Structure formats: C-alpha cells, structure tokens
Request: fold
Amino acid sequence: MTKNIFVLLAATLASQAPGAAEPGLPRPAATTLAHACAGCHGTFGHSRHGTPVIAGRHETDFTKVMREFKYGQRASSIMNRIARGYADEDFQELARFFRNQ
Reply:
C-alpha cells in the first residue's frame, strides 16, 4: 500500500514537473526543483526507505543517470517519466544542489 502511495505521488509530481513550463520562461531554482525529489528520495536526497540516496552524488554521475532516464536509455518504474519533465540544464542544477547535501 505504501509503495502505491509513493508511485501515485511520483506520477503526480511528474505531471507537474517544473520542466513542463513554457519555453522562454525562467527556470525554477535548484532548491525548488529538489523539493519534487523529496517524496521518494527523502529530504535533501537522504532516502530512508529504499530509493537511492542522491545526496552527495557526483555531478557527472547524477546528470548522466538523469539523462539516461529522460531519453529512455535506463529502465525504471517511474524515473523515466519524471525525468522527461525536466530540461537538461535542470539536471545540472540539481546535481550541484544534491552534491552539497
């Protein structure tokens, strides 16, 4: 049941992902983008319930994995759908944010 709640929450966040904003509008700050990750990856990326910890992750690795999700090169139950809602430059901002957590 709890897992179903997390999947539903992630799907809802994906449908409202900041990357879905109109082209040309300013991008949200990394802190704002990171709040959408907390539902599954924990506050500031410190997961406590089985999803990967993304806090402290190397920037290159983070952006590579996120692009793989976005472009269908990495299998996932939900992250491939979530990643499509973000611009590639968002991944770089998120990578810097989570590296420092």
Q: What stands out?
A: The chain has one domain: 2-99. Residues 2-99 form a domain with the Cytochrome Bc1 Complex; Chain D, domain 2 fold (CATH 1.10.760.10). The CA atoms of residues 39 and 79 lie 12 Å apart. The first helix runs from residue 2 to 15.
